[in-house]
Amino acid sequence: xxxxxxxxxxxxxxxxxxxxxxxxxxxxxxxxxxxxxxxxxxxxxxxxxxxxxxxxxxxxxxxxxxxxxxxxxxxxxxxxxxxxxxxxxxxxxxxxxxxxxxxxxxxxxxxxxxxxxxxxxxxxxxxxxxxxxxxxxxxxxxxxxxxxxxxxxxxxxxxxxxxxxxxxxxxxxxxxxxxxxxxxxxxxxxxxxxxxxxxxxxxxxxxxxxxxxxxxxxxxxxxxxxxxxxxxxxxxxxxxxxxxxxxxxxxxxxxxxxxxxxxxxxxxxxxxxxxxxxxxxxxxxxxxxxxxxxxxxxxxxxxxxxxxxxxxxxxxxxxxxxxxxxxxxxxxxxxxxxxxxxxxxxxxxxxxxxxxxxxxxxxxxxxxxxxxxxxxxxxxxxxxxxxxxxxxxxxxxxxxxxxxxxxxxxxxxxxxxxxxxxxxxxxxxxxxxxxxxxxxxxxxxxxxxxxxxxxxxxxxxxxxxxxxxxxxxxxxxxxxxxxxxxxxxxxxxxxxxxxxxxxxxxxxxx
Length: 510
Ligand code: ADP
Ligand code: MG
Hints:
alpha/beta; Rossmann fold; seven-stranded parallel beta sheet; elongated; binds adenosine-5'-diphosphate
């Protein structure tokens, strides 16, 4: 069916035709008349089937009925990612060109001021991610009461993951007469049901939703060890000439690791994950679309709704957690009637996810033996920790971080001169008291007592004793201390008892 047959505003049709949009796609053909009837809609059709125009055209048609611009927001379009919001915004801007209709795009990751200023111009349509829109609702920059049309793009994902509460909050504030339309590539009952209370008997339009009968995508699965994946990936890309490749990973921190590895082996690549700021992400996507590099490494941020043509290989570096994620990832290739290959690496960590996917698909992904030549080891694969520091340097970095912490606990400067604390005076060392009395009187060192006793025991005469004492102390260069008579007596007694005990010992030995 041509657009001309759809009873759309003439200026819209002209605009479409001028840009070679002549025939409506099946989803557009089905959805557009229904929205004219003010019906809630759930529409599922493959990615690339033209869902964006399917919801934007009726919106513009209605807004163009008014001759003048209204001062209130009447349409809100919610999307899960900034890229997607921008993509929708681009199409809206194309349709709005030359008319009084104003669209605004609102997403996180950039400053508030610019977006706030566009809101002051009273846009008719706001397109954005739920978080940022809620921020603006909170700050009263957006009044949702006037909103009569709520469109949720990639609804399966929006309602399945984390966004559901935000989406509900936004919907609750909108007009009672609103229409809600959900657009999605996969049919996900559970997700859609979460908005049942807000929808009135929605009309379901399912046109080949992506339950892959993707005959054009050649799916291959390789069982590889976790450590075999990097080498296999490099070989796969080195030995085949795929011209445009997307590699998906579940983990954000694998993105730079993989792309650095590939660049090291002269496979031009760049990474795309939510770690990068908005401008960087757009710049990377633009370069990839223009073919400035061969391989895009991405988390699932990039797997939905984005239109990058001519991708001939999708690699699942690991197996995605949700089955729909798999469908979306491999759906990046074999678009517009072309053929493509989707290769999945499955390690022991991926088994759970794989069986979930195969249940969902209700067939097994063809499992091929890995090529021996591809099982090589490569260097240069460093997985960063959360802080983005390579594993190699992880340890010193952490140590530094710890030290910085403890520094901060101390006041950085002395605020005033504090009096120096007096050190407690050292107590003089007190030798434990000896129980032998004579040592009190003896003015010789403990170590010398033995000598005195020994000599006293040997020498019978006083003269002999003194001579011996001098001889001993002269040899050992010790200072001679002459014991008093009293001490001498005590020492002698000691020597005597020593002798006796020796005798005793001697006897016992016998
Ligand atoms: P989806 O949201 O279903 O994944 P999009 O709405 O993003 O797909 O559309 C995919 C591409 O097809 C876009 O580049 C869009 O401009 C183009 N397209 C949409 N409708 C038509 C049409 N009726 N005729 C030709 N091209 C179209
Ligand atoms: Mg889309």
